[in-house]
Amino acid sequence: MMEVKNYLQVYEHDVVDLWNRCCTFDPIDVGKFRRQALFDDNFNNDLAWVAVDGDRVVGFAYGTHRKFPYLERGLEPERGWVNVLFVDPDYRRRGIGTEMLERIESGLRELGARNITLGAYSPSYFFAGLDPEHYSEAIAFFEHHGYVGTDTHYSMGKNLHGFTVPVETRDRQRALEERGYAFKPFDYSYSLELLDFLYRELGAGWKRNALISMRENTAEDRMLLVIDPEGHICGWCMRAIDGNPMRFGPIGIAAKERNNGIGSVLLDLFCFEMARRGVYRMYFITTDEPGKRYYARHGLEVIRTFVDYRKELS
Questions:
Q1: Which of 38-43's residues contact partners 24+ apart within 8 Å by CB, and which partners?
Q2: Would you give the DSSP letter of residue 26?
Q3: For a FRET experiment, which of 30, 172, 206, 218 has its CA 20 to 30 Å from that of 141?
C-alpha cells in the first residue's frame, strides 16, 4: 500500500538511489545527502517526507524553515524553502508529489512562513533554482501549484587546459602595479583585515567563506588578494568553497575600485593559478545577466540556467 510518512533514516540509501534516478543532472552520494540535508542546522524531520509502496521508496521531499539565524539575514521567519521534491517516474501523476508538497507547505505555514522559495536555500542548497532545460516536468508541476518564476541565473565555466594570462591582462596588471597596486597570494598576516573587508564591502556570506577556509588551513592555497597603493586590501578571490577544487569564486572588488580593470586582472590571474595547480576546469554556480555578459568576455560559457521560483502563502 502506498503511503506518505515522515522521513526515517532507514530510508537513507533508497532515497539517495531514487534521487539519482530522478534528478539525473544532479547526482549525489550518501555523504553529500547527510552533509547538506540531514546535518544542516535547520533540518526538521517534520518537513521531510518519504513516499513508500510497501518496502519501495517512490518519492521524497523536504522543506526548511530556519531555526538558527544565518549571518545578517537572521531567521527570515516569513520565508520557507522546498529544498527538493521528486517521485519515481513509474509513480508520477498519482498525486504523490502533490501530497508531499502540500504537507511541506502546511508545515511551513504553521511555522510562520508567508512565502516559499524552491531550492536556493543558503548555505546548503542542492539547487540554485529550477533548471528549465533539464527539469521541465518539475517546472510544469510547480507552476500548476502556484509557483511563479522570477529572476534567471546562470552557471558558467571554462576549460583551463593550456590557459595563459592574456597579453592585454599582463599589460593592465603592469599598469596597475606601476600605480602601486599588488596582486598577491593570501597569507595569514592579512586575516583580520580581510575578514573586515569582506564583511564591510561584500557581505557576511563572503566573510563566512573566507573564515571557513582560514579555519581549515586552506586559505593560502585558495585565495588571492589585491592590495591598493595605501597598503590595504581592495580585492579578493577564492575557490573551492564547497571543497571542490574546480569551483571558482566568490570574487569581489571594493566599491571605490570597481570599473578600473582590477577585477579582470584578478580573474585571469586566478584562472592561471588554478591551471598551474592542475585544476583544468573552473566553474561557478550562479550569476545574473550582467555577470553573464562580463564572464563571457573572459571566455566562460553558460553551463546551466536556473530560474527562481516562489510562491506567496495565503
A1: 38/9, 38/12, 40/64, 40/124, 41/67, 41/68, 42/66, 42/67, 42/68
A2: S
A3: 30
Could you give the C-alpha distances from 313 to 73, 80, 107, in angstroms and in order? 20, 10, 12
Homologous superfamily assigned to 162-279: Gcn5-related N-acetyltransferase (GNAT) (3.40.630.30)
- For the chain, the structural domain boundaries read 2-153+308-312, 162-279
Nearest to 100 by CA among 232, 202, 4: 4
Do the domains 2-153+308-312 and 162-279 sit in the same CATH topology, yes or no?
Answer: yes
297 Cβ contact partners less than 8 Å away, ≥ 6 residues apart: none
Listed residue (212, 287, 105, 232) closest to 223, CA to CA = 212
User: Is 2-153+308-312 in CATH node 3.40.720.10?
Assistant: no
C-alpha cell at 16: 539517495
As a whole number of angstroms, the distance between CA 253 and CA 259 comes to 9
Distance CA 197, CA 232 (A): 9
Residues sharing a CB contact under 8 Å with residue 299, sequence separation 6 or more, in sequence order: 158
**What string of DSSP letters covers 273-306?**
HHHHTT--EEEEEEE-HHHHHHHHTTT-EEEEEE
Q: Which amino acid is at 174?
A: R
311 strand-pairing partners: 116
Q: How far is CA 130 from CA 23, 38, 137, 221, in A?
A: 11, 22, 10, 33
**Which amino acid makes up residue 2?**
M
Q: How far apart are alpha carbons 28 and 14 in whole angstroms?
A: 12
- pLDDT tens, 75-104? 999 999 999 999 999 999 999 999 999 999
Average pLDDT over residues 231-258: 96
- pLDDT for position 1: 82
Q: What pTM was estimated for this model as a whole?
A: 0.89
Residue among 296, 239, 299 at smallest CA distance from 270 = 239
